[in-house]
Give the backbone structure.
Amino acid sequence: SPRSTPVFDSNISPLQVFVQAKKNINDIFVDIEAYLKETVHFVDEKNIQAEILSLEDKDTIKEHVKKVGGIREVLKRDHMKVVFFGRTSNGKSTVINAMLRDKILPSGIGHTTSCFLQVEGSETPNESYLILENSTERRSVQSVSQLAHALCKEKLTESSLVRVFWPKEKCPLLRDDVVFVDSPGIDVSPNLDEWIDKYCLDADVFVLVSNAESTLMLTEKNFFHKVSNQISKPNIFILNNRWDASASEIDFVDQVRAQHMERASDFLVSELKVVAKEQVGERIFFTSAKEVLQARLQEQKGLPLSSGALAEGFQIRYFEFQDFERKFEECISKSAVQTKFQQHSHRGKSIAGETKTIMEKIFVASQNLRSQKTMLRKELWDKIDFTDKQLQLLTHEMKDKIRQMVEDVECKVSKALSE
Ligand code: GTP
Ligand code: MG
């Protein structure tokens, strides 16, 4: 029995749309799996003959069960993935920490992040740990300094990946299945192609963290040219970070903003052609990740958001960061639902459709066999009937003949006796 059509609450947050869609599609695959298992059971139990169900179709049904199991496994791991790029010290790790409302990733002056760090929600409550590439060993980490120390010890190559698992209850974004990938500065690596192959192909959103104190750099632009050669229309956000520096440039702030805006818009609209001119305003933001992180940490301690030494214009920058987060959530959720679940739903539909066709074939073949057998039975019956009638006739004839013969004999005997 099919489930009722899933209903989406229009008031739920964008990220919840993904979470809800994942739950719904998983429920649908639970149904498909049950339907397939029932089919296999039916086929095995009835021991259906080859003239009704070919061996090939029988194997197809069994293959489908395996495929659906595989899809359910992939579904469990499906998440929304955002990757951060930019030159060293532009504030990539700080942006991630600000979004996660916690100091999780090491940040600091100089070249800090030395390999790819993927932050994702930990399934075990209150447990934070890391797993190195090509390993399954969980190494417990409680703090940023421990994490930095653990990474330092390992002497990892730039393009290797360390997965950092952080308690879901601490960060709403991790709870909603968003996975963050931090990268080393793109100016320090010659392995950009390898980075793209390893980390960009399944990303839903890219965030280019640029430095508002300087300008968009050629290395940053070239990297994204390479990315958009590989992926059609990647979703790219540009954060002009360190925008708090503008507080000391009151006289020129509007001009600087306009200049950055123009360069960044040109890059996304005319060069990469990844976003329409009318929508570009929703992809470029001026932020101060450091301030947002500081404010959020203060807030968690119960202090007012704007306590501490903050530069002028903090509130506006804070709102702009929140605006970025909202647009980001809408974009990543929409992209992930489309790219991940559309594929699954097509495959689910074709599996269910093919199985239905096989079941219909079984039905038609068994109907045909039944009518063939009925015909055969009728023919046989007619033959028996005919033979029976023949026998009856024969018996009648024989009876008459015998009677005749007896009468003859009797006649002859009585005649002989009288003679
Ligand atoms: P790498 O990992 O080395 O590539 O650098 P990154 O891009 O991750 O930069 P990170 O987050 O480590 O920040 C570098 C330094 O800049 C740190 O000291 C941050 O505190 C500081 N920083 C980050 N964002 C801002 C910001 O918006 N304003 C100011 N003033 N400083 C910031
Ligand atoms: Mg970093």
